[in-house]
Structure formats: C-alpha cells, structure tokens
Amino acid sequence: MPHSRDGSGRSASVKDVAQLAGVSLGTVSNVLNRPERVSADTRTRVEKAMADLGFVRNESARQLRAGRSRTIGYVMLDATNPFFTDVAQGMEHVAEDRDLSLFLCNSDNRATREAAHLAHLQEQRVQGILVTPVDPDSPALADLASRGTPLVIVDRTRPGAAFCTVSVDDVLGGRLAVEHLVDRGHRRVAFVGGPDSLGQVRERLEGARQAWREAGLPDADLVVVPTVALSVAEGRAAGERLAGLPARRRPTAVFCANDLVALGLLQQATSAGVRVPDELAIVGFDDIDFAAAAAVPLTSVRQPRAELGRTAARLLLAEADDPLHAHEQVVFEPELVARRSTLG
Amino acid sequence: MPHSRDGSGRSASVKDVAQLAGVSLGTVSNVLNRPERVSADTRTRVEKAMADLGFVRNESARQLRAGRSRTIGYVMLDATNPFFTDVAQGMEHVAEDRDLSLFLCNSDNRATREAAHLAHLQEQRVQGILVTPVDPDSPALADLASRGTPLVIVDRTRPGAAFCTVSVDDVLGGRLAVEHLVDRGHRRVAFVGGPDSLGQVRERLEGARQAWREAGLPDADLVVVPTVALSVAEGRAAGERLAGLPARRRPTAVFCANDLVALGLLQQATSAGVRVPDELAIVGFDDIDFAAAAAVPLTSVRQPRAELGRTAARLLLAEADDPLHAHEQVVFEPELVARRSTLG
DNA sequence: GTCATCGATTGAAAGGTTTCAATGCGATGG
DNA sequence: CCATCGCATTGAAACCTTTCAATCGATGAC
Question: Residue B327 maps to which CATH number?
Fold first, then answer.
C-alpha cells in the first residue's frame, strides 16, 4: 500500500542540496570534502539542507570520478569454516583502520563461483582483491594481476608469481603433527583428508611423509584415508572407514588435514566407544576455537589466523598505494598445540 | 612517480573498444547488453577488441546510470558464529539465482561498526540491506527504511515496523528446551546466557520461565547465570561458576542461550570430570553443525538457518522489485533435536 | 582612489555507461 | 521508380560527484 519513498521520487543529490541551501554545487562538495574552506555560516546552512533532504552521497558517482573505490574484497574458500572467518576478522581490522570496507564473498570451493566473484569485484574497481583460491595456479589469477588489480593470495603460495602471497608452511605443519605422534610412540598412523586437488592437503601429507621417513618407519604404516571434502561430516565418515579395518592394520593415531575433519572423526570415535586418546590419538590442523572446546580437547597445528589476514590486507594496501611495490611471499611457521586428544 | 599500471595508463573503456573495433559507443553497449540486436559480424569484431584490450565493465558507471546496483548486503552480528554464516549461505543461494552479489559485513556486535556498514551500503545504493541488528529498535533502521532502501531484519522481529522481518520464535524455543528438561525429570535447571541487551537472550529466557512455571516448579529453582557474550569462552567461564556452587544448589541441567556457550560449558564440565548427561544435562540453541559433532552430541533447539536466510533474501528482493509490497513478519518455529547430552 | 591580495564561492568539464530517438541503408511491394 | 519497412547502427543526453581554474567582493596597502 502506502510505500511513499517519502513523496519525492529519487533520492536527493548534491544538486538538490545546493538548490535548497541557495549555493552552488561546488560549495556543497566542499562542505563534504574540504569543510575548512567553507565559511561557518554557509556550512551550517548546507548541513541543514542535507539533513532535511536526507541526502546520502552516491558512492558510484564518487568512485567514477575518483577512479578507485573505498572497498577491498576477500573471496574465501569456505565461509562456514571458522578458520576463514578468523582470517577475515584480521583483514577487517586493517580495513577498519584505513577506513575501507571489506567485501566478503564465498566461493564455496567452486571455481565458477570464485570466477564470478572475482569478475564482480573487478567491475566494482575495488582497491584490491584478497583470495584463497580453489587453484592458485589458475591463469585467471595471473590475468587479474596483470590487468593491474592489486591481488594477494591467502593461505597458498606460488613462488615467482606476479603478486604477493601470504601462507603458512603446510609441509612443516605436517611434519610437526607426525613428529609429535611418533614421539608419543605411535607406529601406525593414518592421514585423513582430501580432496587431493587442495594444495593444503597435498602439502600437509607431504610433511607427514617426510617426518615418517626420517623416523625410519615403513611407508606402508602411514595409511592415507582420502575424503572428498574437509568437513565434519567427512571426518565422521572417515572414522567409520577406519573402524572397519582389521585390528592389526588399524592405526593408533590419526592426523587430520583440518580441525573440521578431526572433530567429525573424534565424534564418531567417541560415540563408537573408542577412547581418545588411549585407543586412538587425534591431531587436527588450524586450531580453530572449537578445537580447544571439543569435549576431548584437540591437539592441533596452530596457524596464526588473524595475523595471516592482517598481513595479507597490509600487503594488499601497500601495493594499492604503490604499484611499483615489490611482491612478497610471506610464509608463517605453524606451531603444534598439544592437548588431551594426544596426551592421554 | 609514474604509476603506469601496465604501460597503458587507465584501464580500457567502451570508448577505447569502440574505436578499436571501428564502431560507435552505442554498438559496444549493445554487444554487452542486447547482443541479439547486433549483427554477427560486428559482434565478433567488438568482442575481439574487448579481449585485446582486456576490457572490464565499470560497474560504478553502470550503477550511476541505472540508479541501482547488482548487489545486496548482509550486516551480520557475529561472523565467527556458524549460525550466521549458515544464514548467509541461504541468502547467497537466492542472490546467485538472481545473478546478484551478496556483500557480507560483520558488525561484530558493535553498534558503531554496524552503523558504518549500513552507511556504506546505502552510499553504494545496494538493492537492499539485510541486517541482524545489535538493536532492532534503533531509530537508525527506521530512518534507513523510510529513505526508501529496502530493508529486512533477520533473526529479530519488530511488530508494526515499516520493514519485513524474518525470525524464529525464540520464546517457543526456550519453552521447548525447558519442557524437554522437565520431561527428563530435572527439577533444578540453570539458564546460561547474556548480555541481556540481546533480544534473543531475553526471549529464550522468557520461554524457559513460562515452561518452568507451567510445570508448577518454583521460580527459585530456575537459576540464571549471566554471561557478557555468547561465545565458547564465556560458556567455559560459566561452567566454572556453576561448578563452584554448593552441591545442593547446583543444577542438574543447563539450558544455554546458544550452542557456542553450550559447547564451552560442555568442555569445561567434561574436563572437570562432570559426566554429561548423567551428572549434568545440557541443551544448546541454534543446532549448528558443531553441536552434533561434539564428542557428547549436543541436544539443541534447531533453527532453520538456511531457510531463514533464503526467506529474508526473497522478501528483500520482492520489496526491491515492488516498492508497494506489503511488509511481512515471518516467524519460523524452532524444533528440539534431542541428542546424547540430555538422553543419558 | 587605485591596485594587489586574499578568502569564499562558482561554473564547467570530466569520468564510463546506458538509453532512446534518429539516421542510414538495403530490400520489398506497389 | 517511389514509398515503405525493417534492421543495424549512431549520437547525444543523462546519471552524480569532484576538481580546478575563474570570478567576485571585500580588505588592506600605497
């Protein structure tokens, strides 16, 4: 029924404000952008007119004129994984300090969705784009960067690329996890994670293998249990598969590619009556808040989540401010946080 | 400093494309927007020119002309709470179907941050704004709606307001939780949650009280344990406070205002040697994925998270398409999902 | 009394896209 | 051969803001 966007049709523009205040366009703009240049009297008159009309700056027009926007975007791999929301939180703080908005998009692990978001951000002429890509080697990313849009890859690395990357040493993380398990006396261990297309998964497994070999243990005793995704549900399913193994071949410990998988596995194990860690030790990866909060607190490989986000955002803005800026490949070191799920 | 991003100065515009392809501006625009009106020959020529120049549409200019954008925004209360990311996921699907982008912002429970995000979205002339507000009665929201920006409140209701709201009956949710506990024989129960400024907390408590009274139980046996936030850490702290109570006054069951609090409490209880549910039953609220995945799977009041998001987004777009649209107040019914944390 | 100066204000141009009425042209029908 | 029609293309206007050189009026110096 009555919808009345207030009687007036369109929303008020600087022109309307100028007219009502009896000044020129330029003056209104000055009130907005260089208030010190305007006499106190005119300024209050203009401000009153703005308030009366409910004037809201049109950011599109502003951007068009300025050529750049007040926004940066982050395309995340999985918005429902707390790891990524924590990373985003770190970025948000940097953006807030610089008075920019952070536009969050979720690719949900799909390359097509990722591409759509990247295109849209580019069309918006954002100051720069942060992305945790489905595939860091995709030529689409290189194209993007070569077109001049500042770009930072988060949680992946790509040596020699034409953009900055901020990541965590996943190979080292994998080593830490398995070294810990070996130290605790485990001699039959499973790695649970997938899909293989995720670099994070490949490298964590690689690290696990290195540590395993260096401990002089036979390759066959490091079992790989692949999953189709890094989710709680997949962790639960993997738990059931493990439970199905003959006792001789069943591992005494599991290293999961991330905490979601570990939590699912933990739940399945406990509900199947397997005692953690006595009968089965579990190590996760990421150290999300839910890891410590699990009923059997989870040993996990901690990544500096917020720091990752902050650093990525800072590098992005550095590049946006200075296009001659040299690209950096920052790599953080992960750290093992031992808790009850491996400590008995 | 010369700041040549690439040799070419600015990025290519329709004008450049037109020139290279030897056609007029209008034709390029037609290729972009009404390709069927352009002869096959010219079309391919124009498309080649675009590819050669790496042409990217300037969304600001487009928006400026069109008066509206291809974007909707969601200002969420707490991006690190999986409940809200699941709601956002539901919205994302609707947006994707309509070929819109969803701009996610996090107010992080702060009114100032919320205001900043709302202002920025308004300046961007988004098609509409979804928001789970810090305070649904804030006049700022009413102002926003009266200026003509389509607005939908998510997870809160506000009867008689000049905008749509989509919520879940929190009072009913509270009743379900407590009725369940009373059915299971509990006669001393605690409610854990806060701050009181959150309507969700107030109403869930209200429902709990109603159910308690209707069961004919004395008010004093429903203990309220306030928290300063709905987080895992606060749940853990509350657990410690409960553990400190003299045995006679200690509740046999706890109803937590959301699952994060419940998970924290569960962890504290288990690590303190309190057996769940035998010595302490726990009910959460939201039924996030981590609830079922907890090592003692959590009984929780399920909200239709994705459905909430989808409905909100649909209402928003309905209003954006038809400003005469009548505002609706949709209320979903929650549902109790009983799991081991109360079932022994 | 004139001129330079200074601060406040103005007006016009620019930025990239879309839209729409107008144009041009070849073909069709009379 | 003329009128008409349809189709592909064109050109100019509009969207709203910002910027910058130009203008105006007044003040102070000489």
Answer: 3.40.50.2300
